[in-house]
Amino acid sequence: MSNFQQQISDCLPDLWRYAFALTRNRDAADDLLQDAVERAWRKRAMWEPTGTVKSWAMKVLLNTYRTQLRAPARRHVTAPLDDIAQTVPAIDTLADQLALAETARAMATLPEDQREALLSVVVGGLSYKEAAATLDIPIGTLMSRLGRARAALKAAMQPVESPVS
């Protein structure tokens, strides 16, 4: 097995989690991952060893996802957000499942640029530098988007206090 092939193989779990976080659907994540890995394999000569294969592959995956979003056949496809809570085996209690579903719903309300930044760092496990390169934005812009995304999530997930009478 070539070094490039081994490195792609090693990052498949992270790529799938990122694909699932973007699509919120297991089947769509599988399809996206397959399309992205095929594209990465075809374009492997374009990878330059200045960064990691993982960050480059995540960029290929994100670009594939964006291309699919622009395709007319996929434009109106929606996925239930509660699927995320049902696919995480480490969650044992109903309260944890509800919290995870609430987080998924709150993340879905974020603007696309903030959601992509948050997912690439939190789900994809990329460093800020790698995530900025993946999204083709300066690192300061990435940090700003992450800050706004985290603040929006915190605000969306604050319990609503009822007035005391």
In short:
The chain is mainly α. The protein has nine helices and no strands. The mean pLDDT is 81.
Describe, in plain words, how this protein is organized in 3D:
- Helix 7 crosses helix 9.
- The protein has about 160 residues and is mostly helical.
- It has 9 helices and no strands.
- The mean pLDDT is about 80.
Task: Give descriptors for this structure.
165 residues, mainly alpha, 68% helix
The largest β sheet comes out as: none
Query: Averaging pLDDT over every residue, what do you get?
Result: 81
Q: Which H/E pattern describes the elements? A: HHHHHHHHH
| Sequence stretches where pLDDT stays below 50 over 5 or more residues | none
Our Rg estimate from Cα atoms comes to 17 Å
Terminal Cα span: 70 Å
Number of helices: 9
- Structural classification: mainly alpha
Could you say which overall geometry the principal axes of the C-alpha atoms support? globular
Q: What amount of the residues lies in strands?
A: under 5%
Question: Fraction of residues in helices?
Answer: 55-70%
| Overall strand count | 0
